[in-house]
Design brief:
Elements lengths: L3 E11 L3 E6 L2 E7 L1 H5 L9 E6 L6 E7 L1
Parallel strand pairs: 3-5
Antiparallel strand pairs: 1-2, 1-4, 2-3, 4-5
């Protein structure tokens, strides 16, 4: 299974460590990947981020790094 990587902008911070990210006029729900959590990288509304989307559900993803 390959993952699709896209760039988007964080539009909202949701409860339980989730973020709403706008990608190509679509809104997806994403959580922070393990590497960013361990290094205490803060993601704020308006930040440009790289998101990995799974092939099964293109409305959910994982933030892998800041762009």
């Amino acid at each position: 299974m390959s993952e699709r990587t896209v760039e988007g902008i964080v539009r909202a911070q949701l409860p339980s460590g989730l973020y709403e990210v706008e990608v190509d006029a679509h809104r997806i729900t994403a959580h922070i990947g393990g590497g960013l959590e361990r290094n205490f990288v803060r993601v704020l509304v308006g930040d440009r981020v790289i998101v990995e989307l799974t092939p099964r559900d293109l409305t959910r993803g994982r933030i892998v790094r800041k762009a």
